[in-house]
Protein 1
Amino acid sequence: MDVTILSLVDGQPSCGPRTQVLACADALSAGGAEAKLTDAVDDAGIDAVLQADNPIVVAADSDSQIRAVLRRAVRIAAPAPSARGTDLPDDRTVADLPPLGVLPLAQTPELVPALGLPDTPETVANAVLAKTVKRTDLLRNDGGGVTVHGIRLGGGDRPWRGKIALDDAILTDGTESLIVGVVANADGYGTIDGLPLCDPDPTDAKLNIAIATPVAKRGLFRRKTHIEVRRGAGRAVAITPVDDVPFIEDGITGELGRKRTWWMERAAAGWYVDVNNP
């Protein structure tokens, strides 16, 4: 069996395999597999690995690197709307994505503990060799992206406003000040600055949404402000900001200035896991 260990390189060739990559390759070889070490500097390089049909281990420091591979996997696997077949269930727009192993490098991506994935070169290699796969939900959005962990909107010193619709329910109509909002798939986005927002489960076929807004109430001697959290879970959420709002999505920062919709793809992502802890 050939196994590809994929390292994502930011725009230029790497200086050589990392220690963790070499250790994982040795463990794969000891188990009878041939490890192929590959660098990808762009989407075309990722696509070539995905289309080779070998088991893949992504050597990663962050969630964003894992997301980059899944985004290309979705592009390859998703049919055009006009070519959608009858074999896809109603709650899926993409076929099962190929399973991935995740090999932590200098830093451990937050997804590794959140999804209970193996975290050493030897245990990652053993999981791939055992071919034990755990499938989890994945979020897609109408901007062509995917989200594995979650999105945080706002959360800084500047309140923001936006209309947020979860399936058929309106959580806020855009007239209220919001402190923070999250769309979560895994638990790393469930708590922000000590404030519990939601308790997502990446295997329940639902995305979780929560917003925190300041609410003022008149007390006996003065007005008091407390934080109200509204929560919900469903298939899709549409967020239309009134003004640009900063966000963090799987570790990537940006600003959202237009309506964006995220929806759930049930059990679309696959991960190699410890055979004793699937």
Note: The first strand starts at residue 2 and ends at 8.
Protein 2
Amino acid sequence: MAKTVRNDKNKAKKETNIDLLGLDMGKKPPQAIDIEEAVLGALMLESNAVTDVMGILTPDCFYKEAHRKIFSSIVSLSLRHDPVDIFTVAEELKKEQQLEEVGGPYYLSQLSNRVGAAAHVDYHVKILLQKYIQRELIGISYEVQRDSFDDSIPVDDLLDTAQQKLFTLSDRNLRRDSQSVKIILNQAMEELQVAQSRSDGLSGVASGYTSLDRITLGWQPSDFIIVAGRPSMGKTAFVLTMARNMAVDHKIPVAFFSLEMSSIQLIKRLMVSETGLESDKIRGGRKLQPFEWTQIESGIKNLASAPLYIDDTPSPSIYEFRSKARRLVSMMGVKIIIIDYLQLMVGPPELRGMREQEVSAISRSLKAVAKELNVPIIALSQMNRSVETRGGNKRPMLSDLRESGALEQDADLVLFIHRPEKLGITEDTAGNSLIGLAEIIVAKHRNGEIGDVQMRFRAEEAKFLDMNDHEIHSNDGMRTYESRMNNQVITPNIDFDQ
């Protein structure tokens, strides 16, 4: 009972805020009382209409308080599968001691006379929903203005709260209606025709790893993909190399959210890969020779013009991520989003301190964003220590995921990076060396096959390669390059606009 009273007080306060803001602007809050009456009258006259609108309207969609109470009674009757008409609604309101508050039986009978045609109820419902959203936006703007004058509220909390409220309202407005199977079939046929016309035989975004693409057929739109591994297995190297392949080789716009490493650190990793120079030279630990500046200039030109967008904001909230992802997709044409890594994101404020539930909320939200934006989202994830204490080949499995219940359930694909040498296993059962070898284990694939992909890992460049990829920067090659440039004084001139 106390909770009901508190909710009523909150609603009353919210209405007062909207009304005051409307008066300040010389306008009434958006409303359509006559449409509200017509909808309620139609619901009491046409039983099928109740089922149609229950998934769309809530009591808050009605501006008049009496209409909210009447609609709540109609919903209660419908959920109990009781008949809905003027008499049953009156009895339900009487039982809740609200009948006189809404105007009594006479007012209910008057509502039935306000119905123009029950067949128009769908159109009327859309009008009510529009007015409700307008009122909610006014209420949110009032609260943002009010809180912005309060210096005790951190600005990050202001932004987070405002974004959360707007996204919640946006979710409400983006709900899709059911579609005819004929319409969906036409869309599927169009996608099939596009896929058939591609020369690479893929239907999604190419990863740049040919052997992996044979299993996935590319990263599919709206898929949520988990790439997991223990620390130092090369998770960041794997997705960073992949981002480079997509952006540089295939000119696919990629967004990379780096929650662990700075953007400069990521770029220096890519510079090592592109130039073949030793990592400590790129990091500034050793002095570069004149010819190496030219080597850098030549090696990074393609990288500089690649459509790769890096965001290194630490610990972003899911609402902040969603806002940035929307902008990147709409303004930059981003086709795939990578997050390094999921456990460093921040979930809804009300779940802080409940880590498993927070990660579950983050996981669900990422899947929802992937579906909404129709782009694949790849999120790196940590694994628990159980894989290290396991006997045998120590291959990871789905239960090794941290907070595995939510991640395993929400993900469309789950990939594990397995490098036996990092676990102290240097030979297989046949005595073959496992040094420099890696397995990408596709452990879950909602829409395709699972399997293992053999790859090579070049530790000095922090780079994954297909088994048949012979892109190796040999030391001999570097010495040959050095001999050609011997005794030449080179001034670094790196122009990223060329």
Note: Residues 259 and 313 are 6 Å apart (CA to CA).
